[in-house]
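Run folding on both entries below.
>entry_1
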Amino acid sequence: MTHTLHRATLKLQTPLGTPLTGDTLFGQMCWALRAARGDAELVRRIAGYTAGEPWLVVSDGFPAGYLPKPSLPQHFEPLIDPAARKAAKRKRWIPVDKFALGEQTHSLAALLGSAVDDSVAFEKMAPVAATQMHNTLNRLTGTTGEGEFAPYTTQTIFHAPGQRMDLYLGLDDARATPDEVGALLTAIGASGFGRDASVGLGKFLLETIVPFACTPPPGADGHWTLAPCVPRGGHFDRQRSYWRVLTRFGRHGNLHALGGNPFKTPILLAGTGAVLTPSGPFTPRVFVGTGIGGDGRLSKVEPGTVHQGYAPALPLAMGVAS
C-alpha cells in the first residue's frame, strides 16, 4: 500500500458554521462517497481502516501558503523579550516557503521564529467568530417558548470574501485518485460543509489539487501533524513528543443527524500541530496515527462508524533532546 501527499486549495464562498477540521472533513467525504457510489463502495474503502490502511487522510484547512505552528514547549522557541511573549503566542502560522520543498535547512528555532499571526496569514481579514441568535417558533402559538422552542445561539466564522484555504490529503494510490477526491470536495463545496449547510453556510470552490513533495530536512527525527490524531501507543518517545489534548464530542451527519441519537462516543485526540518523535529509527511518513471505531465502538446507530485518528505528517528536525 502506497500513499502520496497532495495539496488542495479551496476558495471560500460563504461563512463557516463548522471549522475546517480534518476529521470532520473526512467524515463528510465518506458521506459524499456513499451518496455518489453507494454503501458497498464505502465499505470497500474503509476496509482495513483501523488496521493502519486508510484510503484517505485529510488535514485541517489552513490559510493558503501556511502551516500550523508545531505545539512545542516554550524552551524550543527563539529567545525573545519577555514583554513580547504575549504577541508571540498569537503567531500560530508557519509560511510554507520557510519549510521549502526540498530545501528546509533552517534550524527548528528559525522555523518557529518565522511564525506569523492571523493578520498576516489571512492577508485581507483575520477570521471573525460571531455569535448569532436563533429562534424556533411553536407553530401552534406563533411564539418561542421553553425546551425545544427556547431561543439559542450559534457561532459563525466569517472570512474575507474569496479567502483561500489549503488542505493536505494523504491518498492510498490503489483506492483514491486526485480527480476522484477532488470530485468529492467539489460536491461538498456545492452543498455546504458542516453545520447549517442547508441555510447557506460552508460553501466553497475547489481551485486546485496537486502533489505536494517534501524532502526531510537534515537530521529529521519527528513527525509534525496537520490534523487531530490518535498517536499509537508504544510507537513514540513520550519524553520527546508534544501535543495539546483535544476532546471530540462527535455527532453523525447526513441522515443520522436527524435521528433520535446522533451522538457518538467522546474521544481524546492529539490536537493539530503535534510533534511525535518515534521511539525507534525515524522514517518519513505521509501520515501517522490510528484509525478508531468499527464494531459499534463509536456508534450504536451505525456500528461500522470509524473516526479519522490519522493525520497527514511532515518531517521535522527536533535536534538535541531538551
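>entry_2
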Amino acid sequence: MNRQSLTRHSDFEWWIEPTGKMRVPAVIYAGEHLIDEMDEKVREQITNVATLPGIQRAAYAMPDAHWGYGFPIGGVAAFDPKEGGVISAGGVGFDISCGVRALHSALTADEIEPLKEELAEALFESVPAGVGSRGAIRLSELEMDEMLRGGAEWAIGRGYGKPEDLERIEEHGCASGARPECVSHEAKKRQAQEMGTLGSGNHYLEVQRVAEIFDSTSAAAFGLKVNDIVLSIHCGSRGLGHQVGTDYLKTMVIDGYRPIPDRELACAPIWSELGQHYLGAMRAATNCALANRQIITHLVRGAFAQVMPNADLALLYDVSHNTCKIEQHSVDGASRELFVHRKGATRAFGPGHPDLPPGLRDAGQPVLIGGTMGTESYVLVGTGESERLAFSSACHGAGRAMSRTQATKLWHGRQLVDELRAKGVLIRTRSFRGVAEEAPGAYKDVNAVAEAAEHAKLARRVVRLVPVICVKG
C-alpha cells in the first residue's frame, strides 16, 4: 500500500481522511512493513465501508488485513440503527462465526513426545476433515432447527462435552435471536451430515506447545506455563454458513440499501425486514459453528483419552472472528447499542468487562490468533484501550499474503509435509494440494501481526505457541 496517501498518527496507526462520500475516516493498524505488504484493495475496500450509512467513529482494518469480499478480511465497522445503520452480509463473510477454540491440557510436551505419532493418528481418524467431509451425526429437520437455536448448549445436551464448557464460550455457547426459519432448505441440506467436521482451506486442528511467555500475570490467569500442551480448533459453520452468506448476498444486491460503491457491499437497513431476516439466519449459523466446535471438542477429548487416559482438556476460550454482534460502546461520550461487524477480526474485551466469565474478568478476554502449520500461533489478551481504538477488536491470524493458486505454483504438499516432519511437526491431511495452498510462506508473518496488535494497544501478547501436530482438510 502506498504510504503517501495515508496520514500517520503513530508508528502503528494510519488514517485515510474522509473524502468524497466517506462518512468517517478509515483507520489501519499496522507497522511499516505490514502496511507496505498490504494490497491496494484493502485501501479501496475499507474506504468503501466508511461510506455506509449509520457507521460510527471509523472503519477499521487490523494488522492482518487483506482483500476480501466487500469488506477487507480484518475489517471492523459498527453501525447505529437509530442513524439508519445497515447490516452487511459481506461484512460478516461466508464462513459465519468461523473462530478458534483453545483447550488447555494437563500435559507437557515431554509427556506427549513418545506418543506423538499415535496421537496424530487418533486425532486424524476421530475428526473428519477435508472438502465435503461428512461426520457420523445425521440431523432430521427437527433436530437441525433445534441445533440452530441451541448452539453449543444443544450439543452438550446431546452428550458432546461438559456443561462447564459453556462459561468459556462467547455468548455462553448460544447466540440469542436465531431464526432457523430464515435459513434456506438448501443451507440446511448442506449441513445435515457436516456436524463435527473441520472442512478444508485454512481450517485446522492443532496440538501446540507453549514456547514463550510475554505476560506472566495473564498467562497465570489463563493457567498457561512454558512447555504446556494446548489444542486449537479453527473452523466455522461449514456448508450452512456459506449458503446463508450466498443466499442473503444475492437478495441484498436486489432488495437491499442503495446506493453502494461496490455491489459486494450489498447491505440492508438493520430494522428492515430483510435486515432482520439476515440477522436471524446469521445467528442460526453462529449457533451451527458453536455446536460444530463443541462436537469436535468431544471427539478430540475422546482421541486423547485413547492414547493418554490421564489427559484433561479444559476449555480455555472460544471466540469467533466472522460475526455481527449487538454491543454497548461509547461514542461521543454516550453509551450506544451498536451492531459491530468483525470480518476476520476478533473481539478483544479488556479487563473488567461484564460479558467475560468470572474466571477471566480480571485479566481480560483471551484473543486467539491462529498461525499456519509450521509457524507460531498466539494467545493475546484484550486491553482497556481497544474499546476506544477499534470497538474492542483485534486481529485474527496471519492473513494471506498470496492466493491459493499462487501458493500451489511455489510449493508441493508432500514436500512440505516432509520438511515439517524434519522440524518435529507432524501433519495429517487428506489433500496434499490443500497443504500446498496453506503453505506457511503463503501467509504474512504472524509474529509481526501479533507484535503490531500489541504496539497498537488492541491486545497484548500473552504466550507464543508452536505446532506439534496439525490435522488439515
